[in-house]
Structure formats: structure tokens, C-alpha cells
């Protein structure tokens, strides 16, 4: 078949993110004999025109649409992407077979397919099942017998099967250089699956709890390609947690050191699995910044959020970063179950104590079906059974709901290293656009140490 692969993501805040999921599909589809064309809407000023032009020029038999996210998971300034997806499907479905997939689609596949009207959907990892679906359709078979394939008008489907082995994305049809230039970094993934139990997290739902780790030699080869063929000067590991399992993280760092790869990088890490040795190896391998998904500085809130670590772990891991001269940020989620004014202030106090390079805070927590947070929201009456979660719905503790935004804004403005996207404290779209003009490599939050006093909507 002639296939048009469309990356639907147009979000550029805080960075334009390379569509690694669609690139992972490209290799298996090409290997199955399909002819591929890619349309990445992230950089298109007129997406409708770009889609119409591609359909006319390429005359595809089928269009595969990848939905990365349903919305920007930011409250109160939330943006839902469902309308844009509906427009894409409307343009494509009259002229070709349409198939939707991606992590965003997989969160609510039946509901999204019904809302946008595509011909088929693929929930879960699509590298194996998508080529099977296309072959089935060409042969006139029954696609409902394939795991993960969703059909219009049907409320049930066979659950997707996880991949045994995660492959290397094929980036040859994508403008990798532009992502490196405008996003400041290239992304790569070393593993899939998450065994942890954060109450709001969708990673275990999307990738399963069993961790599948890529061979180190394949990862090194991918890094070398990004650096030498695409000119990437900075990498970001998109793994849910880079430093788990710790022995794998050490093995990868040692391999990067041995290969003398001239590239800097950063990653998301867990405070519980960081040691002086691992941190030193990470730095020697090129790491110049790390991000912690700490969520809170309150012991009660860490427990309520299902975190695997303690306040002392946050203290110790932060101390190691400070002593070793490594930039680090803590990500905070305010408003979870049990949050009060006192627990919010505990978090501010702990961040004052551990002195990170930056704190990135969100108010409210997006509720997704199948998570433990959904059950809590049902219990607390924030949602009712049968409510649609396609449009963003956020959990905010009843005890703090009325004054959360005011309290967080007030306290964040006292501290120059805090970033609160939903409340536009030290960040907004205009500021991000201005920063990108300076060709910043790596996380933009590293620039926080250069800023003066904090402000709302600074530009």
C-alpha cells in the first residue's frame, strides 16, 4: 500500500517534540513492503492545506494518524487537541482509509474513534499489529480478530499485546535536524514499561508494568547516528525513569564513555535509585542536567500519590547533584488527594531547602480512565461513573481547590527559580519563542539561574 503517515502533534510548548512513536512504526511498515510518505504537522503553518496537498500529491491508499497527547495536561490553561484530530480525519477519510494510533489515542481508544470518525484505530504498541491490520484489510479478512484493533461502533476489542522487543526508530523520513535546531535536542528511548504505582500515571496502562530494555549496542548505534548523521548536539532520554534498573543505567553510561560520544544529555530520574557512582558515570557520559518527578515535598502527599520514595530521598539525591555541580529540576504536582494549604507550604519549604536549579510546578492533576486517581475522583464526587474524560478533567483536592492558584502564584513569585506553566509564572509562549531564538541546547529551565526576580507573564 501507499501510506501517508501523519504526526498530528502541533504543540510546541515548551519544545517541539520529535514524533518518536511514528518513527518506530516506519521501519516495520517499510519492511512489510509499504511505500511511505510522512507529514509532520508540528511545523506546518496551515495544516489543512498541508494535508490536502499531501493527499493530492501522494494519492495514499491509507493514512496513519499518530496522536501523541489528548491535551496539554495544564490547568487552568488547558488546551484540548481533539478538535484538531477531528479535522485531520475529516480531510483524510473521504479520500483514503484512515487509521488512528499513538499514546494519546490509546488512553481512550473507543471514545476517541467514536468522536473523530476514523475507519480503524490501533490501541497500544503498533509496530507489530499495524502491518498485520493492513495485510488483513488487503486480504479481506476480519480485523476485529487482531489484538488492539478498534472498530467504529464497537465498545469492546481484543486487548493489545505488548512487544517482546522494542526496536530502533527509523528517522530517515523526518526532519530531525529541525527538531534539534528548534527544540534544542533529540529524543531517544532505551526501554518501555513502568513497574511503579503513581496514582495518576498512564505509563503502566500504555506500556505495561513489565519493563522491556533495548540492547545497549543498539542504543549506542542510535546515539551515534543522531550525532554523526543528524548533527544532534544534545539528547534527551524519554524513558519514564532513566536510572531504573540502576545496573542497566550504569552499563549504558559505561558504554557511552567507552565510545567517547561527543554529546550532552539529560533525563528524568527517580530519587531512590541515584548513587554517587551512578551520578558520576552519568556526568562522564555527557549528562549535564537531570529532572526529578518528585511531585511533592510533603511526606503525606508522597504517600497519597503512590510515590516509591521519601522526602529524605529527595533531600539526599538533591544534595548529590549540588555537590557534583549537576543542574537539576524538581517537577511538582499540586492539588492531589489530601492536599491542603499546609502540605503546599511543606513543598515550598523543602524546595527552598534542597535548592534545585529550577522547580516546575503544575496545579491540578489530569484524570485518565484506568488510573487509581480515577477511582479516587469517583469516590470524592469529582466525576461520576460514565462521565467522559475526553475533554480535560483535573483532580484538585477539595480542601485547597478554592485558593490553590492564588497560593501557588503568591509563593512562586517569592522565588526566582520557580516555573508554573498553568499560571504563567516565569513562563509563557512568547517567552519560550524568544528563548528558542538563542539556540538553547537542552532543557530551557537551566536558564532559570540567569533570571532575576520572578514574575507573571514576563513577556
Give the class-level CATH name of the largest domain. Answer: Alpha Beta
Unreliable stretches? none
- Helix-and-strand structural type: alpha/beta
Count of the separate structural domains: 2
Query: Could you tell me the number of beta strands?
Result: 17
Query: Count the helices. How many?
Result: 17
Q: Beta-sheet strand percentage?
A: 15-25%
Average of per-residue pLDDT values: 94
Largest sheet: 7 strands, parallel
| CATH homologous superfamily label of the largest domain | tm_1862 like domain
Distance between the termini: 48 Å
Describe, in plain words, how this protein is organized in 3D:
The chain is α/β, with parallel strands linked by helices and 459 residues long. The protein folds into 2 domains: 2-150, Rossmann fold; 176-450, tm_1862 like domain (pyruvate-formate lyase- activating enzyme, Alpha-Beta Horseshoe). The protein contains 17 helices and 17 strands. The chain has helices at residues 20-31, 47-58, 82-93, 103-107, 109-116, 129-139, 176-183, 203-207, 216-228, 246-259, 276-284, 299-304, 311-323, 341-354, 372-379, 404-412, 429-436, and strands at residues 2-7, 35-40, 62-66, 97-101, 120-122, 149-150, 186-188, 191-192, 212-213, 234-237, 264-269, 287-295, 327-334, 358-363, 365-366, 394-395, 418-419. The strands form 4 sheets. A 7-stranded parallel sheet has the order 7-10-11-12-13-14-17. Strands 2-1-3-4-5-6 form a 6-stranded mixed sheet, with helices on both faces. Strands 8-9 form a two-stranded antiparallel ribbon. Helix 9 (216-228) crosses helix 10 (246-259) and helix 10 (246-259) runs parallel beside helix 11. The longest helix has 14 residues, at 246-259. The N and C termini lie far apart (48 Å). The model has no long low-confidence stretch (mean pLDDT 94).
Amino acid at each position: 500500500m501507499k501510506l501517508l503517515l501523519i504526526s498530528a502533534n502541533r504543540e510546541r510548548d515548551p519544545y517541539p517534540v520529535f514524533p518518536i512513536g511514528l518513527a518506530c512504526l516506519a521501519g516495520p511498515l517499510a519492511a512489510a513492503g509499504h511505500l511511505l510518505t510522512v507529514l509532520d504537522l508540528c511545523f506546518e503553518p496551515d495544516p489543512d492545506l498541508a494535508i490536502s496537498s499531501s493527499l493530492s500529491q501522494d494519492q495514499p491508499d491509507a493514512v496513519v494518524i499518530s496522536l501523541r497527547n489528548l491535551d496539554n495536561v495544564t490547568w487552568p490553561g488547558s488546551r484540548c487537541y481533539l478538535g484538531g484530530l477531528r479535522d485531520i480525519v475529516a480531510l483524510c477519510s473521504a479520500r483514503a482509509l484512515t487509521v488512528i494510533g499513538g499514546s494519546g489515542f490509546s488512553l481512550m481508544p473507543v471514545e476517541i474513534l467514536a468522536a473523530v470518525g476514523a475507519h480503524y484505530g490501533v490501541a497500544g504498541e503498533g509496530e507489530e499489529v499495524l502491518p498485520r491490520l493492513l495485510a488483513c484489510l488487503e486480504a479481506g479478512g476480519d480485523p476485529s480478530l487482531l489484538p488492539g484493533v478498534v472498530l467504529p461502533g464497537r465498545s469492546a476489542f481484543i486487548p493489545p499485546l505488548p512487544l517482546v522487543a522494542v526496536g530502533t526508530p527509523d528517522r530517515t523520513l523526518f526532519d530531525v535536524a529541525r527538531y534539534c535546531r528548534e527544540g534544542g535536542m533529540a529524543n531517544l528511548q532505551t526501554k518501555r514499561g513502568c513497574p511503579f504505582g503513581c496514582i495518576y500515571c498512564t505509563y503502566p496502562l500504555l506500556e505495561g508494568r513489565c519493563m522491556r530494555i533495548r540492547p545497549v549496542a543498539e542504543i549506542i548505534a542510535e546515539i551515534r547516528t543522531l550525532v554523526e548523521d543528524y548533527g544532534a548536539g544534545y539528547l534527551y532520554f524519554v524513558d519514564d525513569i532513566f536510572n531504573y534498573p540502576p545496573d542497566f543505567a550504569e552499563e549504558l553510561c559505561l558504554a557511552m564513555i567507552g565510545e567517547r560520544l561527543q554529546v550532552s544529555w539529560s533525563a528524568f530520574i527517580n530519587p531512590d535509585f541515584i548513587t554517587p557512582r551512578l551520578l558520576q558515570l552519568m556526568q562522564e557520559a555527557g549528562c549535564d542536567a537531570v529532572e526529578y518527578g518528585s511531585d511533592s515535598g510533603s511526606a503525606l502527599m508522597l504517600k497519597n500519590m503512590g510515590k516509591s520514595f521519601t522526602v529524605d530521598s529527595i533531600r539526599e539525591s538533591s544534595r548529590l547533584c549540588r555537590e557534583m555541580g549537576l543542574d537539576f529540576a524538581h517537577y511538582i504536582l499540586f492539588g492531589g488527594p489530601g492536599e491542603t494549604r499546609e502540605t503546599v507550604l511543606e513543598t515550598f519549604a523543602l524546595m527552598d531547602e534542597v535548592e534545585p536549579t529550577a522547580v516546575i510546578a503544575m496545579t491540578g492533576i489530569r484524570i485518565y480512565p484506568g488510573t487509581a486517581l480515577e477511582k479516587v475522583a469517583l469516590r470524592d464526587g469529582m466525576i461520576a461513573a460514565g462521565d467522559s474524560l475526553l475533554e480535560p478533567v483535573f483532580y484538585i483536592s477539595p480542601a485547597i481547590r478554592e485558593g490553590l492558584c492564588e497560593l501557588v502564584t503568591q509563593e512562586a513569585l517569592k522565588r526566582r527559580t520557580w516555573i508554573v506553566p498553568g499560571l504563567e509564572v516565569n513562563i509563557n509562549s512568547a517567552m519560550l519563542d524568544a528563548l528558542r531564538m538563542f539556540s538553547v541546547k537542552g532543557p530551557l529551565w537551566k536558564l532559570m539561574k540567569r533570571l532575576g526576580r520572578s514574575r507573571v507573564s514576563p513577556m
